[in-house]
Design a protein that fits this description.
The protein is of the alpha+beta class. It has two domains: 6-131, Sandwich (Immunoglobulin-like); 143-500, 4-Layer Sandwich (Purple Acid Phosphatase, chain A, domain 2), CATH 3.60.21.70. It is 18% helix and 29% strand. The chain is built from nine helices and 24 strands. Strands 9, 10, 11, 12, 13, 15, 17, 18, 19, 20, 21, 22, 23 and 24 form a 14-stranded mixed sheet that branches. Helix 3 (159-166) packs parallel to helix 5 and helix 4 (205-216) packs parallel to helix 6 (255-269). The chain is globular and about 65 Å long. The termini are far apart.
Length: 501
């Protein structure tokens, strides 16, 4: 993207207004079928995103676009009618980046709402709403944040995204499995699949671009992106089920080439900054730090061949989930950039969880239970953090858990709180509980809540309290479900642990 300067913004002023207001003499097919998005807010800026694709399901992944750059105009305003435009200019959507646009803004006012839009090929995009973060010293600015994960297109309608948009959060975190890699009919929900994806299992860049485009064309997802800035991290299905570092779950040729294609498509389709790494920190004033983690790219291969089993290898001290550099970055963030609430935005279940009642212990080795030494180091670091919170996706159900100093001693000190959001659709309609849920909870007394409906989670931050609302829809196998708050919990300042409201 061309470098933005105050001079270029001022020079773009009159011409830009004319370009946006001029009547179009020709009306080609709308290139904004994938909507708009914003992400990774700072006190003076945000990333604006769109991708041009008049034919989003095109098999070549190019969305029906010509093999040449296309000029895209953009505007940012204080109001949704754009009577008070504060910045505008143009950039290029290039074929080598899937005709995506990433505008990394600066020079905005901290802690306020903005509206934005794009124009290309004589078409206007929809209007998006975004927000900058407060100044870094601001503590008494409340934050409502939504977080979500796991949206298998075939398993249901994205109604939960629509309901999330209607809640109008200030910030949205997506914790992984934004897309799924399978060809149609491979990954089947318990009640059967009700929608169909186009194309084969995603392997090539064209495959991944097509799959992202089919997801982004969903109007419910577009509504959620347009309502607030997002901060996103991947899990496994954006690339391949249960991949770890440079290794696939099952042997396959050219996995690193496949991974590189998935990484590129992910950047092209997400409102993220150009950066050599995915893990990063989103600061919301002095109220909250969001440490967005990558628990896939730097991890050791899963122990004992993966799966759910008894596995002494999981205890090996050299096993790592984060890798040395990311772990050091995280711990430095705890020390050097303290906030009232330090929040880990990450993918897989953090708390210990024994899936088999009785004397035999079985753990999910793709989660932190397969990386015990690394988890122990993170838990030890929590001892010096004022209010550590772990946010999690992946497991297709809502959970609330207390992070213990010693997992097998229920009376040991609680050091942090884990909040697990359910899936958007993965798993189909779901249910309130599994049949053996009471046995599971007795086996794991630090786990305080479970619900198996689809939905998302709202988190309301103030200096004194974090309130969590687990939001669930009644069904996803047909559109239009209402959403209900299934349970609410509070975490008090300096008092880790869940208090049901």
């Amino acid at each position: 993207m061309p470098t933005l300067t105050r001079r270029t913004l001022l020079l773009a002023g009159v011409a830009g207004v004319t370009a946006f207001s001029a009547a179009a003499s020709a009306r080609p097919t709308d290139p904004f079928t994938l909507g708009v998005a914003s992400g990774d807010p700072t006190p003076d800026g945000v990333v604006l995103w769109t991708r041009l694709a008049p034919e989003p399901l095109a098999e070549d992944g190019l969305g029906g676009m010509p093999n040449r750059p296309i000029e895209v105009l953009w505007q940012v305003a204080h109001d949704e009618k754009f009577t008070n435009v504060v910045q505008q200019s143009s950039t290029w959507a290039r074929p080598e980046e899937g005709h995506s646009v990433h505008v990394e803004l600066f020079g905005l006012e901290p802690g306020r709402e903005y509206f934005y839009r794009f124009k290309a090929l004589n078409h206007l995009s929809r209007t998006g709403r975004t927000r900058t973060a407060p100044i870094q010293s601001a503590l008494h600015v409340p934050l409502t944040m939504a977080f979500a994960s796991c949206a298998q297109y075939e398993h249901g309608y994205f109604t939960a995204y629509r309901r999330l948009a209607e809640d109008e959060p200030d910030l949205v975190l997506h914790l992984g499995d934004y897309t799924y890699e399978y060809e149609s009919g491979i990954h089947v929900a318990p009640q059967g699949n009700i929608r169909r994806v186009e194309g084969p299992t995603t392997v090539t860049l064209a495959n991944y671009r097509q799959r992202h485009a089919q997801y982004k064309a969903d109007l419910d997802l577009q509504a959620a992106h347009a309502v607030a800035p997002w901060s996103v991290v991947w899990d496994d299905h954006e690339i391949d089920n249960n991949w770890a570092g440079e290794l696939p779950d099952k042997p396959q040729p050219d996995f690193l080439k496949r991974r590189a294609a998935a990484f590129q498509a992910y950047y092209e389709n997400m409102p993220i900054r150009r950066s050599p790494r995915l893990y990063r920190r989103i600061r919301w004033g002095a109220l909250a730090n969001f440490h967005m983690l990558d628990t896939r790219q730097y991890r050791t291969d899963q122990a004992c061949g993966d799966g759910l089993q008894l596995c002494p290898e999981r205890l090996a001290p050299e096993r790592t989930m984060l890798g040395a550099d990311q772990e050091a970055w995280l711990f430095n963030g705890f020390r050097e950039a303290p906030a009232r609430w330090d929040v880990l935005g990450q993918q897989v279940f953090f708390s210990q969880y024994d899936y088999i009642p009785g004397d035999v212990d079985k753990f999910l080795l793709d989660a932190w239970d397969g990386y015990v030494a690394d988890r122990d180091r993170v838990v030890a670091a929590f001892a010096d953090v004022r209010n550590p919170i772990v946010l999690t996706g992946d497991v297709h159900a809502a959970w609330g858990a207390e992070v213990k100093q010693r997992w097998d001693d229920p009376s040991s000190k609680t050091l942090a709180t884990e909040l697990v959001t359910t899936s958007i659709t993965s798993g189909g309609d779901g249910s309130e509980e599994y049949g053996d849920t009471p046995l599971w909870l007795r086996e794991n007394p630090h786990v305080k809540y479970f619900n198996n409906r689809r939905g998302y989670t709202l988190a309301h931050f103030t200096p004194d309290e974090l309130r969590t609302d687990f939001r669930g829809v009644d069904y996803v196998t047909r559109p239009g479900s209402p959403v209900r708050t299934k349970a609410s919990f509070a975490v008090e300042d300096r008092v880790p642990g869940l208090h049901r409201l």
